[in-house]
Amino acid sequence: MRRKCNTCGKMATKPYVYHIVPAHKFPYNIPAYSKSKTKIKRADLKGDMKVAVYNYCDKECYKDFKEIHG
Question: What is the DSSP string of the chain?
Answer without folding.
Answer: --EE-TTT--EESS-EEEEEPPPPPSSP-PPPP-TTSPP--GGG--GGGPPEEEEESSHHHHHHHHHHH-
